[in-house]
Write a structure and sequence with these properties.
Length: about 70
């Protein structure tokens, strides 16, 4: 399963953090991980925010209009 967005639940972050505790790494290993993670995260987009403004704009662009109660 590939990641689709950058955001994770807090529970997932906690599980990852707990699994990685206690591991020791050399400074060069830490730097190599840092460099590769920077390159990786450049390819993963942020999760789009769902809000009413964008939904209304999408509906208007597709030709759907809200019915008025007048």
């Amino acid at each position: 399963m590939n990641r689709q967005f950058r955001q994770l639940d807090d529970a997932t972050k906690l599980r990852i953090s707990q699994r990685l505790r206690g591991r020791s790494m050399t400074d060069s290993h830490k730097q190599a991980i840092s460099d590769s993670m920077r390159a990786y995260w450049e390819t993963i987009p942020n999760k789009p925010e769902n809000n009413n403004k964008s939904i209304n704009q999408d509906n208007n662009e597709t030709g759907m209009q809200k019915e008025s109660n007048n």
